[in-house]
Amino acid sequence: MAVYQQLINKETRLAVIGLGYVGLPIALAFAKKIPVIGFDVNAERIRLMQQGIDPSSELDATAFESSDIVFTNDPEVLRQANFFIVAVPTPVDAFNVPDLRFLLSASETVGRVIKNGDYVVFESTVYPGCTEEDCLPVIEKISGLKNGVDFKSGYSPERINPGDKTYTLSRIVKIVSGCDAEALEEIAKVYELVVEAGVHKAPAIKVAEAAKIIENTQRDLNIALMNELSLIFDKMEINTFDVLAAAGTKWNFLNFQPGLVGGHCIDVDPYYLTHKAAQLGYNAEVILAGRNINDRMAAQVAGKVVKHILKNRTNIADATVLIKGATFKENISDIRNSKVANVVAALKEYSIAVHVEDPFASSDALEQAFGFGLTEGLSDNYDAVIITVPHRQYLQLDEAYFCGITKENALIADLKGIFRNKISQRSYFSL
């Protein structure tokens, strides 16, 4: 009997390995339709999910209701499944080289429990070829089974957008691919259980891997262009957001904005593509140029603030700067790869005292990840305020608020331009 039929007959289970921002929503979506095993190596995260709590604070308790799911960190429980989805992180290391440790470890886990007739689908973002060249050989070696003969495989890139309540899992077309025609059809049917928008059947696993990685590479390059324009326009003493507002009146102008580029995708995925390109003897010049621009924006922002303070203070070490916003984008608690940490580090190189405030971020998580936490009780005498992301709470603020927490000669560095043309009593800067 086909694996899809076994799943909908509830004769077996689907397993999701890795229950973070990507894996947990997928697991709960399937658990509304078929029996699911949610597996994660982190015992504390499992304990919270067993209580109906999302450790990533993306889903509320109702998402766990009416779900046929078993949460576990015991790999032996995975033997009850015949369809495995791997959704573990794929970061880069300190040298921007792809770090496959989590992915290869998950492949080993699958290799120990996979059986004849089972399916394994990878969702983690990787370079084209990674699934077939790096992951599946691990499964074959440990299991003693042959891909395409004893078990089937595929790749279906995740498209979860943290904080987005409109384009959710079910509303985004899902790319699917398989090791052969039979696998492609079976994998497509399984995902169609939870994706109302439908699926796109890619002709090969490498195509699906490439499609995912260029989604974020394209965004990275477009944001890099905006960031470079902001550097040029700053020298011309014109506001980038004024320029974009004017240019945006043309129907085919793309709506990208300058800003700090962090998170789990846009500032990571391009390095997977350039790494693979380098292995093949090609230097990806345009992609790396975009990465270089975006990676140095934190230093550019810090430099702008430092120059302003130096004009108004004899001893910069006595200065205090407030940073409003520590997450990598607005209205979420996600701090992964937040470039705010780079701004903090750059300012501290000048012995400037830095306070950080954010209505969504966890102080403990910031401390663990970056070595600083949130500030309790704000000052009324800041030399500069940097607004990094347009959290909804910040949109309600006005000039009186900023005047109340800053010195008269302070700088308001509004990176996303949300207070453009609204600040007149303090110096103002936006990207």
Describe the structure.
- The chain has about 425 residues and is α/β, with parallel strands linked by helices.
- It has two domains: about 5-205, 3-Layer(aba) Sandwich (Rossmann fold), CATH 3.40.50.720; about 240-430, Rossmann fold (3-Layer(aba) Sandwich).
- The chain has 14 helices and 13 strands.
- It has helices at about 5-10, 25-30, 45-50, 100-115, 130-145, 180-190, 205-235, 240-245, 270-280, 285-295, 295-310, 340-350, 365-370, 400-405; strands at about 15, 35-40, 70, 80-85, 120, 150-155, 175-180, 200, 320-325, 355, 380-385, 405-415, 425-430.
- The strands form two sheets. The chain has an eight-stranded mixed β-sheet with strand order 3-2-1-4-5-6-7-8, sandwiched between helices. Strands 10-9-11-12-13 form a five-stranded parallel β-sheet.
- Helix 7 crosses helix 10.
- The chain is elongated and about 75 Å long.
- The termini are far apart.
The CATH architecture of the largest domain can be given as 3-Layer(aba) Sandwich
Termini distance? 58 Å
Annotated CATH topology of the largest domain: Rossmann fold
Low-confidence stretches: none
Report the C-alpha radius of gyration, rounded: 24 Å
The share of residues in helices is 25-40%
Tell me the major beta sheet: 8 strands, mixed
Shape: elongated
Give the CATH level 1 class of the largest domain: Alpha Beta
User: How many separate structural domains?
Assistant: 2
Instruction: Give me the CATH superfamily of the largest domain.
Output: NAD(P)-binding Rossmann-like Domain
Name the helix and strand elements from N-terminus to C-terminus, one letter apiece. HEHEHEEHEHEEHEHHHHHEHEHEHEE
